[in-house]
Amino acid sequence: MDGKVSRTDKLNAEFQKEIYDIIYRKLKNPLVTEMFSITKVDTSKDLKNARVYVSVYSKDERKKKATFDAIACDSKRIRYELAHSVKLRTVPELRFYPDDSMEYGDKMDALFRKINGEV
To answer: Please, which residues have CB within 8 angstroms of residue 74's CB and are 6 or more apart in sequence?
Structure first.
């Protein structure tokens, strides 16, 4: 790759920032009780669809699932707000997916510590 950042990459970064801001600051859904982050946005080349990856930080699996479900259920409201905050003719359809990569990394760290006798 020649170091250029594609338009889609720029949009993904902008969407990631804006979606978090919309959920956290504008919607203030009372069902979103746990800390979360938007870890990645992957927009299709035709800009019609975007996969939004959400990581929810909680020890309580029920609260974690409830927070993710509340965010996913707000997808139409989030898209509506996103359309007002970015200057595009059309805003992609948003689909939310859980991102458990942080938990996976924590499990792997714990396994390595156990193998090395650090536990």
So the answer is: 23, 27, 29
**DSSP labels, 12-52:** HHHHHHHHHHIIIIII--TT--SEEEEEEEEE-TTSSEEEE
| Angle, in degrees to the nearest 10, between helices 75-85 and 61-73 | 60
Strand 93-98 and strand 49-57: pairing?
parallel
Phi-psi region of 102 (alpha: psi -120 to 50; beta: other; left: phi over 0): alpha
Beta-bridge mates of residue 71: none
67-98 tens-digit pLDDT: 999 999 999 999 999 999 998 888 999 999 99
